[in-house]
Amino acid sequence: MQLRALSSSTVKWMRKRRFVNILAMVGGVALAIYGVLILTIAATGNVIEGRAALACGGAGLLLVAAPLLALPFSARVAKALALLALVSFTVLAGWLAFWPQPGISPDPLVQTAVVAFAVLVAGRIHLARRRRLSGHWP
After folding, report:
1. Distance of alpha carbon 61 from alpha carbon 53, whole angstroms
2. Cα(41)–Cα(29) distance, rounded to whole angstroms?
3. Threshold 0.85, pTM exceeds
4. Which of 40, 36, 118, 26 is nearest to 72 (CA)?
5. Could you tell me which residues are beta bridge partners of residue 77?
6. pLDDT of residue 106
7. What is the pLDDT of residues 15-62, one digit of tens each?
8. Which residues contact 57 (CB under 8 A, 6 or more apart)?
9. Which 3 state secondary structure label does DSSP give 19?
10. How far apart are CA 96 and CA 45, in angstroms?
11. Calpha distance 78→74 (Å, rounded)
12. Cα–Cα distance between 44 and 57 in angstroms, integer?
């Protein structure tokens, strides 16, 4: 039985993959630290106005950091976390765009953009499930 050496294209792909993993990990750590700092500032009460918005921003950064931190270990988990982040942002955008608030009338253009984003996310989920069920998943 003869062993074959790795081709040069395989070695180049492995180097690129390692670079992407390192870059994802560094970006995920930076976003997670920033999100935790923002949540800490909001939780300690060092903000007079906009405390809820600051907390939502910190939680959003943690949602974005989660798939980046999971990517070097498991691509499947990273995809699931990215999907969770997209669905969470869609629900939050829908809540903010259509929630009746006294004295504030939402702009119809913003509501249209939120509906379009929700349709795109739902379409992405549907197409991914259909491709997985048909067996054409790479």
Report:
1. 12
2. 18
3. no
4. 26
5. none
6. 79
7. 788 888 888 899 999 999 999 998 888 888 878 888 888 888 888 899
8. 38
9. helix
10. 23
11. 6
12. 15
